Amino acid sequence: MARDHHPSRRPSRAARARARAIGASAVTLALAGTAIAAAPAGAAPKPRGHDVSSHQKKVNWRKAKSKGARFVYVKATESHTYKNPYFRQQYDGSREQGLIRGAYHFAVPHKSSGKKQAAYFVRNGGLWRGDGWTLPPALDIEYNPYSKKKKCYGLSKKKMVGWISAFSAEVRRQTGRHPVIYTTAHWWKKCTGNSRAFGTHHALWLASYNSSPGRLPAGWSYPTFWQYSNKGKLPGDQNLFNGSQAQLKRFARS
User: Of the listed 78, 142, 170, 237, which one is catalytic?
Assistant: First the structure.
């Protein structure tokens, strides 16, 4: 995920090279599953997007749109103390250029409760409105970038599931939407025990720097978003939406 701190676990150089070769016009994500296939001739490409944080600073949104961006997720907060100082320029600037945009929160579960971090997120950019231009709030939950020894932040699998549930419940209470969950299949298995508790109500934003989304966390049958590379034409990480532009608008709306 594009954010202020680099993750402790990165894809291999070969995997990143394969991912950079992926183009939105060359692949299609199956809406009823996770298969990747060559797009039929004349088929509309999947909407391309990206995610940014203060690492990208002030983004040239006109340029990003000209290079194919149709949506973006912007980091708003981390833990219960950090706010992205570039959030307004990134969040409002992308909307001014006609991009569908949303906000995400980087979870640091050992610092405070899921409820407290969710409330902080909503107060500082994690709101949602059904205007067709605002993506649901997103939770970025992945390996601890601050400690290689405590990759799951020192929480047991049961406590991690409880933390995510508390975060989700507070976001839903305040915004009316369940948060999108950004994660990797490997982290989900290791840190939640491959919990199936979230697949029914939470859209999956899968990070998988390979030639296809591949294995999914338990509970989900397909990813709504696929982050396939951390390098590309767009600022930050590169993403695809699993559907058409019209479906992306409907997903943002309700």
Answer: 142
